[in-house]
Automatic annotation (TrEMBL), chain A:
Compositional bias of kind Polar residues: 431-440
Designated name of the protein: HTH TFE/IIEalpha-type domain-containing protein
UniProt organism field: Thlaspi arvense (Field penny-cress)
Biased composition (Acidic residues): 450-463, 483-496
Sequence similarity: Belongs to the TFIIE alpha subunit family.
Bias kind Basic and acidic residues: ranges: 348-357, 367-377
GO cellular component: transcription factor TFIIE complex
One example of a Gene Ontology biological process annotation: transcription initiation at RNA polymerase II promoter
From TrEMBL, chain B:
Keywords, alphabetical: DNA-directed RNA polymerase, Nucleus, Transcription
Name used for this protein in its record: DNA-directed RNA polymerase subunit
Compartment(s) of residence: Nucleus
Lineage, uppermost ranks: Eukaryota, Viridiplantae, Streptophyta, Embryophyta, Tracheophyta
Entries under Gene3D superfamilies matching the protein: Nucleic acid-binding proteins (2.40.50.140), RNA polymerase Rpb7-like, N-terminal domain (3.30.1490.120)
Organism: Thlaspi arvense
Amino acid sequence: MRKSMEKSRPVQKTVVLEPFIKLVKLIARAFYDDYTTKSDNQQKSAKSDNRGIAVVVLDELARRQWVREEDLAKALKLHGKQLRKIIRHFEEQGLIVRDHRKETAKNAKMYSAAVAATTDSRAEDKVKLHTHSYCRLDYSQTTLSLLIYDLVRYKLHLMKKKLRDNLEDKNTVQEYACPNCQRKYNALDALRLISMEDDCFHCENCNSELIVECNKLTPEEVIDGDDNGRRRQQEKLKDMLQKMEVQMKPLMDQINRVKDLPIPDFGSLLAWEARAALAARENGDFNPNDPSRSQGGYGSTPMPFLGETQVEVNLGEGKEDVKSNGGDSSLKVLPPWMIKEGMKLTEEQRGEMRQEANDGGSGEASKMSDDKKSVMENGDDKDLKACLLLLGTFVPDEYLKAYYAALLKQKQQELAEAANQQESAGELASDIQSASTTSVRRVGMKAKLEEEDEEDVEWEEEAPVPANGNYKVDLNVEAEASGGEEEEEDIDWEEG
Amino acid sequence: MFFHIVLERNMQLHPRFFGRNLRENLVSKLMKDVEGTCSGRHGFVVAITGIESIGSGLIRDGTGFVTFPVKYQCVVFRPFKGEILEAVVTLVNKMGFFAEAGPVQIFVSNHLIPDDMEFQAGDMPNYTTSDSSVKIQKECEVRLKIIGTRVDATEIFCVGTIKDDFLGVINDPAAAA
């Protein structure tokens, strides 16, 4: 279990969500506020005008972690199909990740338990057992997807570059079009197009004289490409660039603020559920939804001493910790035994982290509305939309390539570590699922320990003794043992 | 950009060239075949500077022709995006002008000509500044920057710009005369 938490990387230590949520909200308003699910010709009637729907969806997603799409639809009072369309759009844009799985009673229970643990609300219990899709905002997923942060920076960079290039006429290959057959050419075709009769360009198809293709950014101008028009166009472009800079200012500010913060990572759906379940149990709040408790639904035999173990564990400072963070549901609580063993390090860190969270929370929350307004209010963001349209064809793949190239090295390193951790994490995750009771996990642990240091003979004697009295001792031993293990792993990390 | 590279080619030689001068014949045929051609990969072959090796010939069945694998050193010219070239203007029209830098043809469209130069139609079409101190017309030399290349298997064509610092007319024979 501890390993599976570490798998989500040092991030876990100081996840501060607020700035990211704010970033998402800004992005939603800047880029997606006139996204519609309708095609253009349908858009006319005011009734079916659903602009801004994407913003609502993103906002809601920012408030949650993993969410079943059905639940999301219900919460937003949206039709499932409509929502799915929007979500697919965001998935294409690399903003969210989805996970599909065949729903079983167990899974559903697990999910609702996790939801209950991370939020105040309770998930719907009666779920039809079909394939269900889950989605979450993708703040980071190191291997497969993009950082929202990087994605947006890249977008902004492209927009600016496009405008600048157009402004300075730099590196642009002139395009030509045939007025008759609409065929497009560019300057690289010039040699073939030039006609010996009048030194002008002629269409290869219909031999009519080609005209200079007007600039895409300002389509209403410059059809004949005369100088006046060009000059006017330049001014317009300059104007647009300035406007963009002003309008994007809050977004850029937020990006800069987020830059140095660790990235929230909820992990995969399974990992998230497991973690949430654990957190809930350590929270001490009795959760009837928790299947690992109410039923031995994971193929384990229910352990009679489970309750006592909980109490022992919670006697640590973990409980107060939980309370103080209680308001922030998204903050994951470290399991108390983990806090104990890493005490020298984490104590101060934990303190810092909480403070940071508070700072971010109060300060930025108040600013939030202002920023939002400034983004929304800026009068004619039509031009902005125009250049956003240019990026409509934005392909995440293209970005992925660039991004991967940069990450390749890092990934290779991580892969090695991941391989290490994967097996242990996988093992543990399955442990949690199949039997997320402490004692069984300990058995798994013990098996591992036996492999690692063979001298550990006491374990075999202790494990089958499920007496209450032993538990304190037991825990400590485990903590020490696993503490040692952690050190080993730390070394691994440094090496990698 | 120019490169000095080694290329290889299989030469077919007619039996009538066999004799004392076989090697000379082979080389002169190679020069005739290769110099001035253009490959998309290496660019224009400007000149052969030497023969590395001539392999053993292989007589073709039925024809009597002999195939020699020949390795030769040559100078090739390959234009690149971003490269600065000096070129001679060959044609001016209202769309821009064409220029040649050795074997490569370059087109500069009118929006990549500085804004203060205007097209003047007439007997000798040209681009002129408002104070007519600079004139781009046929035969004059310009320094330009390549912003795009189109590389086919046997052809290279470039698009250039003179809208940047230190680009433009470098020597105008008409003005000098």
